[in-house]
Design goal:
heterodimer, A: mainly alpha, MetI-like fold, 11 helices, B: MetI-like fold
């Protein structure tokens, strides 16, 4: 397709939807028009709130997520490599994964108070399970011929771990990381809605309680944009890490 | 068979180890009993709670929100996905919108749900439907795109109507993908159902946990968390069973049974 035509197909429906929003929103209290939300967005978030509320929230999310990734992969590799350990721990891990992560928020709040540490801990405790279980699964399903080849050529130790185990399990690990990212965003927001005096989740709920509807919508918009931005970043990372995998054509199967 | 049996024993040993650990750690005073009650007390509290009608009502509320929201999202997503996939040009037209709306975290809708429905089933449904709709829709779109082009041309050459093409060609091809979407959506829907109860206060397990937490009944908090984990396992198992039933004809399931 030529470029203008492609641009048109990309933008036609979003433009229509915004127009529909405009048409519906006339005078409604609960649904302010797009231009008012846009103005509120700029006024609300391009202020000191960006530094006080938004950036710390995102920072906690990234810190918790990174810790969960290290923990999940670090524990998942030995569990996946040892059949006995795996058989022993699998039911326990499946149970922990089945617990919906948000229920841990009240518990961890009781145990760790309501400071930054607790919020990061909540994110770690929710994100770690999908990463851990997918790592175990990926390491378990490593190609046996490749494993024998490694042994034949005397590839062992850290080199085997890096070039064979982690590489071979990386498609599964990335799947786990993707699931964990959406859980992490949920937990970031909930931990702040629950008990906090700052942060993105707290601010949005505050707007809602004070019936600042336009500001509330701008907050929803911001959360949406953060979710979108993180998922775009993640897809970039995935492309880079898994370039060998997509190239081999195995991803299509 | 013996291998599976052995694995089963190892699994039981793991669970037993977890129970022994949670029993021993507070008893030995490594962690204050107020923060981590011994396993026997947690399970005892759970048993006592299970004898009360309130808990079963809460559980029923949670499962009702889960099932209703999942069903709504599933039907809407399947219809939308098939229409987008079958009508030529619609996929390209909608892709930017889908890609934009899909990553929006459904908890962003919490304030809106509170405002519109307050602490009621409506709030739960709004969050559950939004979260699970995209999981199913994406899989349906993959599934519809996976239709074999030769088969599609054959169907067209034989003059099959749009409806019979959907019924006999698109639907069977997409079904494994649809079931994957349903499985993912069921897990997400359960998380969001509990979240809505926890944060907004709609009746259900999440609200019970919130009440137990604010009254400082720590064994009850643990007991309810254990219960929610068990329900989560039940939800996963039920959807997997359904998947096997529905896809019994599909090679991926048939070979599993044979092996």
């Amino acid at each position: 397709m030529r470029r203008p035509a492609r641009l048109l197909t990309l933008l036609a429906l979003p433009a229509l939807l915004v127009l529909a929003w405009w048409a519906v929103s006339g005078g409604s209290f609960y649904l302010p028009s797009p231009d008012r939300v846009g103005r509120a967005f700029v006024e609300t978030w391009f202020s000191e709130r960006l530094v006080v509320d938004v950036l710390p929230s995102v920072g906690r999310l990234l810190a918790g997520y990174a810790m969960a990734a290290l923990l999940g992969v670090g524990l998942g590799v030995p569990i996946g490599l040892s059949p006995r350990l795996r058989a022993t721990l699998e039911p326990v891990l499946e149970f922990f994964r089945a617990v919906p992560p948000p229920v841990l928020v009240p518990l961890i709040m009781l145990l760790a108070g309501i400071d930054t540490f607790m919020k990061v801990l909540v994110i770690v405790s929710g994100c770690v399970w999908p990463i851990l279980l997918n790592t175990v699964e990926g390491v378990r399903a490593l190609d046996e011929v490749l494993s024998d080849t490694c042994r034949m050529y005397g590839v062992r130790g850290p080199s085997r771990l890096r070039r064979f185990v982690l590489r071979g399990a990386s498609p599964q690990i990335m799947t786990g990381l993707r699931q964990a990212l959406s859980i992490g965003i949920i937990l970031m927001v909930i931990s702040e809605m629950f008990a906090s005096s700052s942060g993105l989740g707290f601010t949005i709920v505050l707007f809602q309680r004070q019936f600042q509807i336009t500001e509330m919508w701008s907050g929803i918009l911001l959360l949406g944009l953060i979710g979108l931005g993180l998922s775009v970043l993640f897809r970039r990372l995935e492309r880079r890490v898994l370039s060998w995998y997509y190239g081999s054509g195995a991803a299509r199967a | 068979m013996t291998g599976a049996l052995k694995r089963g024993w190892y699994g039981l040993a793991g669970l037993g180890g977890l129970l022994a650990l949670t029993e021993a750690v507070p008893r030995l005073g490594l962690v204050d009993e107020r923060f981590l009650p011994p396993a026997t007390r947690i399970l005892g509290t759970l048993a006592a709670q299970l004898a009360t009608p309130e808990l079963w009502i809460a559980l029923g509320e949670t499962l009702r929100g889960w099932a209703l929201g999942l069903a709504l999202a599933f039907c809407a997503a399947v219809v939308t996905g098939v229409v987008i996939g079958v009508v030529p040009g619609l996929r390209a037209l909608t892709s930017s919108t889908v890609e934009f709306l899909r990553p929006i975290p459904s908890v962003a809708l919490v304030p809106l749900a509170t405002l519109l429905f307050g602490p009621s089933l409506g709030s739960t449904l709004l969050l559950v439907v939004y979260a699970s709709f995209w999981q199913v829709l994406i899989q349906v779109l993959y599934g519809v795109a996976a239709v074999d082009s030769v088969a599609a041309d054959t169907a067209r050459a034989y003059g099959l109507s749009v409806w019979s093409r959907v019924r006999h060609l698109v639907w069977p091809t997409a079904l494994p993908y649809v079931m994957t979407g349903l499985r993912l959506a069921a897990a997400v829907a359960f998380i969001l159902a509990v979240t809505a109860e926890l944060v907004i206060g709609s009746p259900g397990l999440g609200a019970e946990i919130q009440v137990a937490q604010s009254s400082g009944a720590i064994p009850a908090v643990y007991a309810l968390i254990v219960l929610s984990g068990l329900v989560g396992i039940g939800v996963n198992a039920a959807v997997r069973l359904l998947e096997r039933r529905v896809l019994a004809w599909h090679p991926s399931v048939r070979s599993e049974v044979a092996a």
